[in-house]
Amino acid sequence: MKKTKNAPRNNSPLDRRDFIKTGAAAAAVGSLAIERGAFAQSSETVKVALIGCGGRGSGAANQALSTNGDVKLVAMADAFKDRMDSSQKGLQRAHGLKVDVKDENKFIGFDAYKKAIELADMVILATPPGFRPVHFAEAIKQGKHVFMEKPVAVDGKGVRQVLAAAQEAKKKNLKVGVGLQRHHQLGYQEVIKRIQDGAIGDIVSARAYWNGGGVWVREREKFEKAAGRKLTEMEYQMRNWYYFVWLCGDHITEQHIHNLDVINWIKGGAPTSCQGLGGREVRRGIDHGEIYDHHAVEYKYDDGSYMFSQCRHIRGCWNSVSEHVQGTKGRGTVSGPHMLTDNEGETIWRFGGGGKNPYQQEHDDLFDAIRNNKPYNEAEYGAHSSLTSVMGRMATYSGRMITAEEALNSDENTMPEILGWEAAPPTLPDENGSYSIAIPGKTRFGVEKV
Amino acid sequence: MMRVKLSRFLLVGIIATLLSGSASAQVSFERQVKPVLESACLSCHGEKKPKGELQLHTHEGLLEGSEYGEVVVPGKPEDSTLYTTTILSPDADEVMPPKAPFLSKVQADVLKEWIAAGAKWPKGIVLKQVRRVEFIKDIKPLLEGFYEEDFDFKSSVVPFDLDKSALYQYASLPSDSPDTLPRPEKGGKLEEKELNLLRDWIIQGAVWPDGVELEVKEMPAAVVDGALPVAPKEVVDIRVKAVDRLIKQFEPMMKPYVDEIPGTGVKFEMIPIPSGDFVMGSPKTEKGHSSNEGPQHKVKIDPFWMAKTETTWNCYTLFMYQEEEKMVMKLRGYKPELNAVSDAVARPTTPYVEMSFGMGTDGFPAISMTQHAANTYCKWLTAVTGHYYRLPTEAEWEYACRAGSDTAYSFGADASVIDEYAWHDGNSNFKYHKVGTKKPNAWGLHDMHGNVSEWTADQYLADIYGTFKGIVSNPFQYGKDLYPRVARGGSWMDKPEKQRSAHRIASSSDWKFQDPQLPKSIWYHTDAQFLGFRVLRPLIIPSSEEMHKYWTTEGEPD
Question: pLDDT tens digits for B182-198?
C-alpha cells in the first residue's frame, strides 16, 4: 500500500485507530451518588445503554427492547467498532426507531462504558466477564439499573467488588438482574419449588454437568490476515477472550456457573469448600490460550451434603448439560424434563410444559420491577454462584482444597493494572505462541503460576 | 488493503466538493456557461433553423434575442428569459429545454450568476452544438457497472471541473495503476468512448437528477457469455423423454450401497426407492387427519436412493467441525487434498450449548439444525463423496414413508403396534434413540415414523394439495420465505397420530425461541430437539443451477 500524505481514516474492520489508546485504571467503587428512586410512572421511557455488543449483548438488548412499555436504546460501548456496528445494524432491523443511538453516543475503547452509562436509565453489561465488577460498580455509582450477564466476576476481588456494589444498589433502590436465566424458566421454578417443599425429602447430594464440545475459537492468524497487520497481544486476547482467565474465568466459570447456580438455588446457599481435578488433555492449540478443557469438582455445603460437578470441552465424549439431585425420598432431574421420581424410579411429578423464553422472561421481570418499583436484586446470588465457580477453578488449578472464605478473600487479582491496546495482559505467550498452564500441586491459586 | 485505498478516494471526493462550493462565486464563461449553452440549448437555438428565431451560438445572436424580444438583460437574471425559462416546473409550457433532461440547479445557477455579472461574452467566441450527455441513459449504467460501496460517486464529481472530480481522475489513470477505477475485477479501465462520456457529462455540468440513485446489481455468481436462452417447450419435452429413457435403463441397476465420508471411516447406508406413483395426503376419515393433508392427489415420483436412517451425529459432527474432520483424516493417513472441493463449503459456527442435549451422540440422530444447515450438509456431503445428495421433497418423503401402503401408517391403519416401528412419546422416555433400532418399513427405511422429525426441501403451503390438477410429477415447492418450511414424520415427543405418513409439520421461528444471541444463529434451531433429517440421492443428476436451488434456503438469517 502506498503511503499518502493525508493519511485516510482506516476503514478496516479491525482498525486500531478507532480505539482509545490511553489506558484506564480500574475504577473503584466510589462515593454514593444521588439517591435514585424508581420511575414515577410505569409509562416512562426507559433509556438503555448496551456495554459489550457481541452476540449475547445484542441478544440481551433485543430482549430489553422487546419488553412491554417504552424502551429505547440510546448508547452503546464496545472495545471494537466492528462489533458495535454490526450489533446496531441487527438491532435496528429488529426494533427500528427504538434503537436511537446517535453516532456521538457510540463509544469505543476500554473507557467507553463510563460515557455510555451516563446516558442511560438502565444498562446492559455484557462484555467478557472480567470487566463486569468494574462496570457494575460504575453503573451503581452512577445510579443506574442494571442487567448483567453471568458470571459477574472471575476472581475473589471481583466478587468482593460486586457484593459491595450490590449493597449500594439496595441502598439506592436500583434494580439488578443477572443473566442466570434458569431462575426465570418455568420448568426450573416449578420443579425447584417442589424440591424445596420436600417432595423428595432432604437433598443429600447433587450432580451438575456442562459436558460438551466447547465453544468458538478466534484464531490469531485469521484476524491478522483480515486486518493485514499483527495484532497486539491485548487485541488478540480481547478477540479470543474465552481462552484467557482474566477475561473469561475458564469455562467452569463462564459456562458451568449455570449448573452450579441451580444447585445453589436449591440448597439456598453456596458451598463452603471444594476440591477437584482438571487439566488440558485435548484442546492444546496455540489459540486455546491458558484455560483447561475439563474440570471435575466436589463441592461441600455447610449441611454436609455434596455437589459433584463436571464440565468438559472435549468433542466425541459423553455429553450432558444438566442438574440432578438425590433426596432422602427420591430423585430429581432438575433440568429438562424437570421431573421427580421416588427411589424406585416411579414418576412423582413431571413438568407439563409452558412458560416463556427465559431470556425474555428475565427482562420482562426486571423491567416490571423497574417500572413498578418492586424489590429486585439478583447481584448477590449472582456473585455467590460466580464465587462457587471461581473456587472450583482455584481447586482444579492448584489441586488443593479451597474454602469459599479463602477464595472470596484471596488477593488474587486477574485484571491487568493498565488497560490499553499496547499494554501487556497478565499472561503472555512464549516464543511458540503457547501460554503457561496452571499445574496442580504447583500453582497456588487461580492464574498465579510458578 | 483495498478498503484503505478506497477510503482515500472518499477523502479526495469530500475535499473536491468543499472546494467547489467556494469557487462558485465567479462564473467562467468558457468553463461553465459555454458547455451549458452548447449541450442544452444549441440543438434548437443554433446556427441552423433556429426555433423562435433565437440563435445562441454567437454573442450577436444572444443580443438579438428571439421573436418575442430580448432574452438576456445583463445584471438582471430575473428579467432574462434565458434564465427564467430554465427554472420553470417541468410541466410548464414555456420550460426550457422543452423536454427532459432539464437544467440542473447548478446549471441554471450558472446562467443566473453569469447574467447577474453582466452576461459577458469573450470576443470572437462561436459556440458549436455538442451532444448532450444524459445521466439516466449514458452515465447511470456506466457508473453502476463499477460502483464501489466505500466510494460516494455523487460527492466525488464537481460540475464543470474535471480536475476536481475525483471520479474522473481515478478513471483516467493509466490502466496499470493500482488506483484506477473501475477496479480490474469490475472490468478495468474504461474504454475511450466511455471515458469521454464521463468527461463530457462533467464538463456539461454533471447533471444528476434529484432522487435518482445508482442501482447496484449483484454480480451473478457465474458469469456466462450472455444469459442462457429459456428452453422452448419442445426442448423441455425432449429432455423429459431422454431422462425417462435413462431412468428405464439405469433404474433396474440401482442397488443398496454403503457410502463413506472419505478418509474418516464414517459410513451411512442408502436404499434404492423405485419410481412410481402414489396417492399423497390422507382422507378425511383417517384418524388424526388434518385439513392440510387433503385433498388426496396422485403424484408421480422418479427413482432415488434414500438414507436407511436419519443422519447421525457421527456423520454430522464431521461437517460441524472441520478441524475434527481433518484430525480424523490425518489419524487415518489421508491427505487433506482430498477435500479440495468440499473445503469451499461453509461450515456451521460452534454452538455455545451442547447440541445433543445429553441424549447421546454415537449412533444417535443429529438434531436441532436449521434447514439451511441440513441443506449445507447435503452440499458438503456431495462435495466429499461425489454423489449428489439433497433433502427429500415433501412428496418424495411421503412416498418413501408409505412404501406402497395407503394406510395411516406404513405398517397399517392400526396404531396399536406402533411400538415395534417407532419411538414416540409413549415409549421414548423423553429422548431420541439410536437410529435403526425399530423395524423398517416395506422398503427397508427405519424411523420414518418417530424418533426425530425430518426436514424436507419444501416451503410449507397448507393449501397446496388443492391446487394440483391431474397427476403431479415430482412436485417441489421452492420457497422464498424462511418460515414455514416442511418437516415430516413425528418424533420422540409426539403422539402416534402425529407419526402418520401424511402428517405435515410447519417450521416456525419459535424453533429458535431460546437462542439468546442476536442475530440468531442461521445454523441451529436450539428449541427443535425433535428435528433431524435424512439425505436423498436422485438417480438423475440435475444441472448445477438446480443443485444450487435445492441446497439454498432463502431467508436466512431471519
Answer: 887 777 888 888 899 99
**Helix (H), strand (E), coil (C) string for B397-430:** HHHHHHCCCCCCECCECCHHHHHHCCCCCCCCCC
Q: State whether A90 and B519 contact (CB < 8 Å).
A: yes
Parallel, antiparallel or unpaired: strands A46-51 and A71-78: parallel
Q: What is the DSSP letter of A202?
A: S
A350: enclosing H helix or E strand: strand A347-350
User: Cβ(B337)–Cβ(B329) under 8 Å?
Assistant: no
Spell out which residues of chain A touch residue B355, defining contact as CB-CB under 8 Å. Answer: 212
CA dist B105 → A117, B152, B157, B166, B396 (Å)? 46, 20, 15, 21, 63
CA distance A376 to B260: 56
Q: What letter would DSSP give residue A344? A: T
pLDDT, tens digit, 9 for 90 and up, residues A223-256: 999 889 999 999 999 999 999 999 999 999 999 9
Nearest-angstrom CA–CA distance, A349 and A190: 10
Distance from CA of A63 to the nearest CA of B (A): 9
- Using DSSP bridges, classify how beta strands A294-300 and A306-313 pair: parallel, antiparallel or unpaired: antiparallel
Percent of chain B with pLDDT over 70: 93
**C-alpha torsion sign, points A131, A136, A141, A146:** positive
For residue B2, the one-letter residue type is M
Interface test mutation site (partner A, options B347, B362, B518, max chain A beta carbons within 10 A): B518
B326 shares contact with chain A (CB less than 8 Å): no
Q: Do A6 and B11 touch (CB under 8 A)?
A: yes
Q: What is the pLDDT of residues A325-369, one digit of tens each?
A: 999 999 999 999 999 999 999 999 999 988 889 999 999 999 999
Who among A4, A91, A216 is closest to B518 (CB)? A91
pLDDT digits (tens, 9 = 90+) for A281-332: 998 899 999 999 999 999 999 999 999 999 999 988 999 999 999 999 999 9
Residues A258 and A240: beta-carbon distance below 8 Å? no
Rounded to an integer, what distance in angstroms lies between the CA atom of residue B287 and that of residue B271? 30
Total Cβ atoms within 10 A of residue A122: 23
Q: What's the CA gap between B313 and A388, in Å, rounded? A: 33
Q: Is the pLDDT of residue B174 over 80?
A: yes
Query: Alpha helices of B289-416 — where are they, by DSSP H?
Result: 313-320, 322-331, 371-385, 394-402
Spatial distance between the Cα atoms of B182 and B180, rounded to a whole number of angstroms = 6
Amino acid (1-letter code) at residue A204: V
Query: Which ranges in A197-347 belong to alpha helices (H)?
Result: 220-227, 233-239, 245-248, 251-254, 257-267
What are residue B78's phi and psi, to 5 degrees? Answer: -70, -15
| DSSP category for residue B90 | T
Task: Return all residues near B471 (Cβ < 8 A) that are at least 6 apart.
Answer: B277, B298, B299, B300
Q: Is B385 helix (H, G, I), strand (E, B) or coil?
A: helix
User: The whole model's pTM is what?
Assistant: 0.70
Give how far the C-alpha of residue B12 lies from the chain's centroid of Cα atoms, to the nearest Å: 33
Q: Which of B1, B4, B315 to mutate to test the interface with A (most CBs of A within 10 A)?
A: B4
CB pairs under 8 A between A and B: 90
A102 contact partners, CB below 8 Å, separation of at least 6: none
Which amino acid, one-letter code, is at A57?
A: G
**B361 and A316 in contact by Cβ < 8 A?**
yes
State the residue for C-alpha cell 490476515: A225
